């Protein structure tokens, strides 16, 4: 794919200064089908997940579960809107093959799409980190979290994530980075370059995403270890941990999906700008399509990995017991042997007195 030679003159808008349409390339049916099929699949998946989440929120009586469902709702809404905005533009290009220079001579539309790509790309990663923080305090400091955190504060946290991601997306409009037309002419993204402010913004986008994934991994690891200790400890039959385990499984899957889908693109951007080598368009498109899977797979984590669904898949499981871990005694005994020494240390330090009392 080679761009037509367009000399850079004073009246050339910034977004067309690197790649200027029309482009000489051979459009493939695969590109149009990929955009249409995966965009539609993602929209339907997120719509189903939102309906399921709404019903679950209305039926739940658990405070911690309500907090988690609010974060999941924010994630689903973000993924849905991201696919709706970006897919509409890309599909329209593949159908009509419009010329961006004629349609958007002042780069307003290109800047909007570039901001959308950055905003809807960072939001799922930042929401995943926020969910990991919420679960960390919910499992390790339940008293501090449940007594001082109303539901509206969780909504404020989701809005704060959106505000931070929006602020980062607006940076190129202030001169830190810039949005440019990207090959093959169907989308706009920030300029991945090792020069000046473009380098700074490329690193901001890449490092913020990688930092969110790292925070999610660290906090989720601590939460899982704490949850295993509680489930395998002496109070395992007195405290219900069904919802905690269910939420933790969903959060870990969301983290794994985000890591697999986004790490290649984030690392590719960082390596490109730090090494100073030219941008490989084919690699960028490949890793970008990889990242698109995150918005498609996220909703299916909650749709499929719920107790009600798993109960239908295997109705012989006794879901009425005090903990899901009790359904697998051999696994519980194995984990207990590994955590027995740490539990003794915890008991000797009096930390078990800080655990919340048994729920009636």
From TrEMBL:
One of its GO terms (biological process) is adenylate cyclase-activating G protein-coupled receptor signaling pathway. It comes from Perca fluviatilis (European perch). It is found in: Cell membrane. Residues 45-302 form the G-protein coupled receptors family 1 profile domain. Its main location: membrane. Belongs to the G-protein coupled receptor 1 family. It is a multi-pass membrane protein. One of its GO terms (cellular component) is plasma membrane. This is Thromboxane A2 receptor. The lineage of its organism: Eukaryota, Metazoa, Chordata, Craniata, Vertebrata. GO terms for molecular function: thromboxane receptor activity. The chain crosses the membrane at residues 32-54, 66-92, 112-133, 154-179, 199-228, 249-274, 286-305. Keywords: Cell membrane, Disulfide bond, G-protein coupled receptor, Glycoprotein, Membrane, Phosphoprotein, Receptor, Transducer, Transmembrane, Transmembrane helix. Gene3D superfamilies: Rhodopsin 7-helix transmembrane proteins.
